Amino acid sequence: MPRVPRVAAVLEDRPVEGPKRVLLAAPRGYCAGVDRAVVAVEKALERYGAPVYVRKQIVHNKHVVSELEARGAIFVEEVDEVPEGSHLVFSAHGVSPMVKEAAAERQLQAIDATCPLVTKVHREATRFAKQNREILLIGHSGHEEVEGTAGHGGDRVTVVNSPEEADTVVVEDPDNVVWLSQTTLSVDETMETVNRLRSRFPNLQNPPSDDICYATQNRQVAIKKVAADADLVIVVGSANSSNSVRLVEVALQHGAKAAYRIDYTDEIKQEWLDGVQTVGVTSGASVPEVLVRQTLETLASAGYTDVSEVETATEDLMFSLPKELRRDLGDCDTGGVRGGRGKGVRDRD
User: Which GO molecular function terms does the record list (predicted)?
Assistant: First the structure.
């Protein structure tokens, strides 16, 4: 993987009918949970020195991972790959209790960078499992977040991958069922799944509060507005980023004639722009703004120099650094980290 953003591609400025323009969605890019996790690895490297180990990708973005690798972070799949006594960061997607136990057995110095909004879902799963409720977890099997949440609910959890699976899932007691969800899903598809479940299980209980995170919802609302006026939408984000992939789907569902996901600007193909007047641009919640800026530079080379921001929400959400880092950093450099611009300010472990 490249260490820095690749050189911006240069495209031909081909004529189209009418003026060319770019609609830039806002909010976009880093959310507070991603910002917190990335800064946690950076601060750990500064405080403890390299190497610092990270279980799985800290966030689902190629560029972020390669940048941290260059600074001394080592990404592993499981804790048994980490030398005993080393510093290990848990990714923003969260882990199961079994992973934490395995880290403790190896006497690893664990730093939990789980997004606080994911931690909220973990607590819900733990509580409902203790109440012996059946938990229908709407999400994608194999995704790190789903694996972590399922671990907190144990054998009381059944994963529902799609609205179609809602039509066939089997439960023990239809009157003792609650649903939870992965935080990075399409809001519309999740509610379709919930509605299908409720048509079969009328007493299905809702979670205490919305599980889909503010950033996921805000970025989807913004791209819906952009897509309605766009011939083409470009989403900057990695293939394993659930929320980035959902943005492509949402754009297509809400008016975009075409939509593509890219990691880097040199992936933009000239033919995508043929006959295109309006290009919508957004980025997933784990994408640094530098990659968006490179995308705009590439589009400018093709004549798309008129850029208008389409803002549908303001974000002002902050999370404090993981408590393990705050303890070791002391009074210096332990303030909150901000991602995006959302309602309110949160400062949670």
Answer: 4-hydroxy-3-methylbut-2-enyl diphosphate reductase activity
Contacts of 25 (CB under 8 A, 6+ apart): 219, 222, 223, 225, 226, 280, 281, 282, 309, 310, 312
Q: What is this structure's pTM?
A: 0.91
Q: Which two tokens stand for residue 34?
A: 């991603």
Tens digits of residue pLDDT in 156-208:
999 999 999 999 999 999 999 999 999 999 899 999 999 999 999 999 999 99
Interval 53-81 mean pLDDT? 97
* Strands 134-138 vs 87-90: parallel, antiparallel or unpaired: unpaired
241 assigned ligand-binding residue? yes
Is 243 known as a binding-site position? Answer: yes
Q: Is 93 annotated as a binding residue?
A: yes
The C-alpha atoms of residue 162 and residue 220 are separated, in whole angstroms, by 18
DSSP letters for 14-68: ---SS--EEEEEES-S--HHHHHHHHHHHHHHHHH-S-EEEES-SSS-HHHHHHH
Report the mean per-residue pLDDT for the chain. 93
- pLDDT tens digit sequence for 307-341: 999 999 999 989 999 999 999 998 555 555 544 43
Q: Which of 67, 134, 145, 324 is catalytic?
A: 145
Is 172 considered catalytic here? no
